[in-house]
């Protein structure tokens, strides 16, 4: 894990400790997150996971905003318990009051979308095709049926795939 990220996590905890005049248990921190999320706070495990690709591509903003966002979730949980909303008043108080940052719920980082296979299914309608995801294709293999809304016939795999 990059030292800058670890140092930022620690700095966020120190700010919270100064603000609330109490200690907080430090989390386990990992860089094992992929996909669209920049970070995730696991409240009951006191663990933070961050996305290394989004960190690399957006380092400055990530360190300032994303790290504080995720730490604020753990701090709010330690202060207020389970009965609060994830981005509710308590979390917003920490973002604004402790970190002096906007309580943005979502990041706006550029995400690379990978190409996905689409499995082409057909019904009895002329020239009608249904591109289905790998997940739906697998469910059909396990017995699930999908039906055309027009002709009411079960969709049948054409044997073709495309990149969607």
UniProtKB/TrEMBL annotation:
GO biological process, alphabetically ordered: response to stress
SprT-like domain mapped to chain residues: 7-158
One Pfam family from the record: Zn_ribbon_SprT
Domain of life of the organism encoding this protein: Bacteria
Protein name: Protein SprT
């Amino acid at each position: 894990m990059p030292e800058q990220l670890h140092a930022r996590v620690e700095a966020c905890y120190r700010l919270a400790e100064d603000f609330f005049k109490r200690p907080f248990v430090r989390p386990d921190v990992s860089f094992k997150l992929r996909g669209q999320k920049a970070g995730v706070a696991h409240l009951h495990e006191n663990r933070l996971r961050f996305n290394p690709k989004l960190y690399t591509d957006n380092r400055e903003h990530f360190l300032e905003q994303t790290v504080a966002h995720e730490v604020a979730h753990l701090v709010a949980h330690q202060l207020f318990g389970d009965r609060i909303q994830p981005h509710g008043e308590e979390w917003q108080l920490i973002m604004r009051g402790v970190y002096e940052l906007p309580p943005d719920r979502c990041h706006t980082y550029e995400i690379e979308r990978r190409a996905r296979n689409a499995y082409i299914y057909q019904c009895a309608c002329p020239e009608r095709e249904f591109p289905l995801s790998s997940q739906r294709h697998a469910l059909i293999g396990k017995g699930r049926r999908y039906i055309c809304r027009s002709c009411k016939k079960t969709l049948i795999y054409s044997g073709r795939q495309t990149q969607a």
